[in-house]
Amino acid sequence: MKFSDIIEQASSLLRRKGRLSYRTLKLEFALSEEQLEVLKEELIEVQELASDKDGKMLVWAGASPVSSSTFQVSSSQPQPPNPQSPVSYTPPHLAERIRAEQAALEARGSSEGERKTITALFADIQDSTALIEGLDPEAARRLIDPALQLMMDAVHRYEGFVVQPTGDGIFALFGAPLAHEDHPQRALFAALLMQEESKRYAERLRRDQGINLQIRVGVNTGEVVLRLIRKDDLHTDYTPVGHSIHLASRMESLASGGAVVVSEGTYKLIEGYFECKALGEAKVKGVTEPVPIYEVLGVGPLRTRLQVAARRGFTRFVGRQSELEHLRHALAQATAGHGQIVGVMGEPGLGKSRLFYEFTLTSQSGALVLEAYSVSYGKASPYLPVIELLKRYFQIQPHDDERTRREKVGGKVLMLDRHLEETLPYLFALLSIDDPTSSLPQMDPQIRRQRTFDALKKLFVRESLNQPLILIFEDLHWIDTETQGFLETLSDSLTSARMLLLVNYRPEYRSAWGQKTYYTQVRLAPFGKEEAEEFLAALLGEAPAATVGAASGRSGGGTPPPLSALKQLILAKTEGTPFFMEEVVQTLAEEGVLGGERGHYGLVQAPTEIHISPTVQGVLAARIDRLSREEKELLQHLAVIGRAFPVSLVRQVLPQPDEELYRGLSALQNKEFLYEQPAFPEVEYLFKHALTQEVAYGTVLHERRKALHERTGQAIEARYSANLDEHYSELAHHYTRSGNTEKAVEYLHLAGQQAVQRSAYVDAIQHLTAALELLTTLPDTRTRAQQELMLQVTLGVPLQFTRSFSSPEVQATYARARELCQQVGETRQLFPVLFGLRRFHHVRGEVLVARELGEQLLSLAQREQDPALLMEAHWAVGSTLFLLGEFGAAQAHLAQSLRITRQNSDRTEHISWSDKHLQNSSRGFVSKS
């Protein structure tokens, strides 16, 4: 049997079984130790279909096993014949949402799928093989099944998806198929919940059976490809991109003693939200360099992005003065006894929470401020923000025992007003304080709900008689039903209360008090140009780039572009959204592009591109995923077409009925993904944020992208055939991304030539260098050599003006072009090549070499009898002779250059190498001679 057949059969067997011990593999296929190692390497590292467990067995890490038991105990135990599919263990409400997501995937092409950034979690029972050694298979299942169930329950509690059980553990994803912007936090909340629940279960096992059970968890955040979810059983196939899934599995194997271990990528996203301990670097199989790993110890002190920003250090508060004045006016009215509700609405990242922070910092005026936050996973937890509000009001601390909590609540309520004693059972119930005398458990749920609302309302309204009260509820778009009901009840009693209710939310939230006269809405917009520049200046500062680059040793011999150029790039990318600006700057600092500290950054190296931080990507991806399937598909396709586009171009690329297209564009415009901008002869649309376009683009699979780019390039060629020169850069972009190398090189060269003509030398270098890189992927033929020669000759011009005439890059470019001339015999191209080389040596003072090259130029020009070439050749020889002190000969050549110029002015005024500067130089040399 060929070894490739063994690999295929072993892969098939492992897929069916879920896991196989190395001993079984050796016996099954008669493998030597060396052959076993090769097989392991192929399945684990090359094909990424399996992971190693404790050095004893392979665990399937590809698609779900097709015939293994959900609760597989060990490879040595007999397995039940019927597998459990994901639908059997996924809660119905999550299953319905996943099916809805699958319907959207099918609309976009289920065979293709889309790319997702997710957080992968592997959890298992540590040393399970030893734990169940000697146990009857049924006894082993009774031991392991409850542990598996609590793992899955924890995942489902935070809306994760259990892709597959792995025998004594699970493999789960957060962020797909249900998108969440905070999927790393959700994964770790689930991991900590597993630990908490497993400790209770383990304590019972120790007491009853003397068994010590521990659950270990590994977590990593990265990219996967979501391809298929069968709606009948929710079977799914997530193909890992890079090492995202593999690394999560490795983190699990590194977690000892029932720990939760995360990769550095995940740690950076959850830092502050959780308490972590650095474990140093670990050698991970399949990864070349050791990777930093961290143990998660528990929930940290921070709950919101605002709190994380506060710990990092706030950027100076910019703008929003009119909004602050509105809040201050509302507080003045509330203090006077006319209660107010103010809703601040805005897209993610516009500063809703920061506005409230600045307001409470400067405008409390003796008022009591109570804040509460909704969280994205909180809808399943009734009263979560209200409970947080009550804990702040009663000053309840995490370490308070039940007696202390009871005394704090009861004492404060009775001191406030003894008539509020009737509210205590409801407050005790919300705060989980035991009350044996309470009749609430037997009360009708609807009556209990309304009386709870009334109790809360009475408490806060009575407190407002003593002092003005500011209640702040953040992120109502994530609010649970019970908290929403309480706010509606409270809003009916605000008219004569000294209370200001401040709420903020994203546009998708719909309030129930919109018609009340004491309610106003403040809509936050992105910063205007001046505000955005001021904010970015506060973030970056004005540190000289050269100083920072020199200090860090990262300048690489070149001078980085000024910080002002980077600022304009960031402004264009973030479109005035402060949070996005902060995250982009933070990412640039972490990547080493920026050096120094906030407010005093300098440019260390020129950024090749602006990367989106995972935090921003999560925010935008979650918002995109809330679109309907038709809207999301259209947005993805538009993202490939470009940042701005006319409708006629979209119609050519995406053949669909006009009515359907305009309906989709209108919906995306209403939801503020797109802007409509007047243009002639037709209306154009523009992505509101460049980052939104980038995130939407990133969800499209590569093959689908390539097809859309190709169709877009063809549509541009057809639509703009009369003025194609206005679209060279666009065409170069689309054909580069489509993989059409021949056309990509053609348009990159045209775009480069155009940029040279416009003196846009930096752009020219980018286009021409990209074309040269692509050219290397084509077969080595004479045609390719001719194309490369044209590119090198064109590239020489902008290099001379940006790197100096005597730079090594200029020499390398013209030297390569000279080799190509010799290879293909291009006489006409040889002239500018020799001219560039002559200038290089001339400027460096290597005049003898320059003289020799000048004579070669003159010989070529005389052979061609071209006035333009003769003029340049005589000028080149004359200027070099002048430096050598041969003034008579120099004067003769320079005078000849001038004479040819005057005689052939109509033929020489547009040549590439001689202009008025050349003529003036000749006159100067002649006069000096």
Explain what the structure shows.
There is one protein chain. With 929 residues, the chain is of the alpha+beta class. It contains 39 helices and 21 strands. The strands form 5 sheets. Strands 4, 5, 6, 7, 8, 9, 10 and 11 form an 8-stranded mixed β-sheet that branches. A 5-stranded parallel β-sheet has the order 13-14-15-12-16, sandwiched between helices. It has a 3-stranded antiparallel β-sheet with strand order 1-3-2. Strand 10 and strand 11 form a beta hairpin. Helix 17 crosses helix 18, helix 23 packs across helix 27 and helix 32 packs antiparallel against helix 33. The chain is globular and about 115 Å long.
Write out key terms for the chains shown.
21 strands, alpha+beta, eight-stranded mixed β-sheet, 13% strand, five-stranded parallel β-sheet, globular, 929 residues
Biggest sheet: strands, sense, closure? 8 strands, mixed
Number of strands: 21
Average pLDDT number: 81
Task: Specify Rg, calculated over alpha carbons.
Answer: 35 Å
What fraction of residues sit in β-strands?
5-15%
Distance between the termini: 87 Å
Summed up, the helix count is: 39
Q: What sort of overall outline do the alpha carbons produce when their principal axes are compared?
A: globular
pLDDT below 50 for ≥5 consecutive residues: which ranges? 63-83, 236-240, 543-560, 908-920
| Helix share bin | 55-70%
Structural category: alpha+beta
